[in-house]
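G.,

No rush on this.
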Amino acid sequence: MTPNPMPTKLGPGRSTVTEALLSVVRDPVGRLIRDWNWKSAVLSTALHAPIFFLINLSAGRKAAFGVLLTELVLRPLTSGIYGSLTEALRDAEPTWLAGLTASVLMPFANHSLELLVHGLRGTPKLAHSILASVCFTVFSTLFNLYAMRRGALIVGENQQSLAQDMRRMPRLIGGFLAAGPLTIFRLLKRRGTRAIPRRPEPGLEVFNKEDWSDAWTINTRSAGHRRNEALS
């Protein structure tokens, strides 16, 4: 994989989202062409092409096979490039911003071209096809970023074989699906912990300035009253 020679604010191996995107702008050939993510191309084509085929099947087999052929030609070229762009964001921080950037940038770039190509060729169920493809792309892009941050579905340096990546899929999919609920649970637990007041230990009650003033007044009055009783 093409290394990033520019220093980053977050130290070696990490970068901000802006730095990650700038690294692509500075070296688009290296980042998007030489580091073309063939794994994303293969998996995306295998998943997207059937979606287009099934949605357009109601328009006839001939039309559906025409749409399928278009996806088999278009999808590997674009998905490999967009997979490389997602991979460029895998070390970017904060994680939520990298995910948001990928889930917005990828569908916009990907489906703008897809809409143009399928519109020109006259895909029968164009609106339904693009809508289903966009929804799937948002989900798959977030999953790809999640997997890439854990060393799967990457190309170049430190890559594993596609077979090794696929063996890790059940655990990666489970972790990805659980990530959202676990994050919400941790946030609620953290807020609940902050909301519970700390009970002072017996004899170590904490007073603010007014409390100390009132306590001093009460104690002074009590001491004076006891002296008056003793003198009488």
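When you get to it, here's the other one too:
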Amino acid sequence: MSVSGGGLALSIDEKSWISRAREGDAVAFEAIYNRYERRLYAFVYRLMGNSEDAYDLTQDTFVKAYSALPKTAPDLNLSAWLHRIAANACMDVLRRRKLIRWLPWETFDTNPGLEPTASDDPVGEYTQVETSGEVQAILDKLSPKNKMSLVLKEYQGMSCDEIGAVMGMSRSAVKSLLFRAREEFRQAYLAHYGYAPGAEPDEPVNRNSPDREVGAI
């Protein structure tokens, strides 16, 4: 999708952009596009793993958003809404390619007791020392929903409440999903490299994660 016309200063309130875009103001929608395009592209790229899909699905997200915006509620959370459109677009493509079996978000069981501590972050440890391509190689081994939750948390910097808004889950369900996702990432890393994220290559590792004290995010 190509958006033309003069831009708006970032100091203009986002609610004003939304209100004007609902009325068909193309310049206001361009401001929304300019603010979120790169962020959504990065999000989609992490889910799809290639730049061609990332570009196409990012543009598709904004096309859908432009059409649907007039029907949205006045208190719209724009970031969560756009990410949800993008996430659904990615899942639609993956389903058509038969790369995943569809399960609604609600079918994932929750266990509020399994809440990782802030420091229990194998993805963060990994991304600090490895290249983008190597991170993507591990992310691509994860189940789609685990992968999405980690991308939203680690790369989009979203809180549990924000992730919940994107994925249609409660905060406690997001915490449980992130715990499972981090464990899957840790195990995928171990299987691929033979040592834990943040560990030295020759450091012995128990592939069964030890019990850890857990707390709220």
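The chain has two domains: 14-96, 107-193. The longest helix spans residues 26-48.

Enjoy the weekend,
O.
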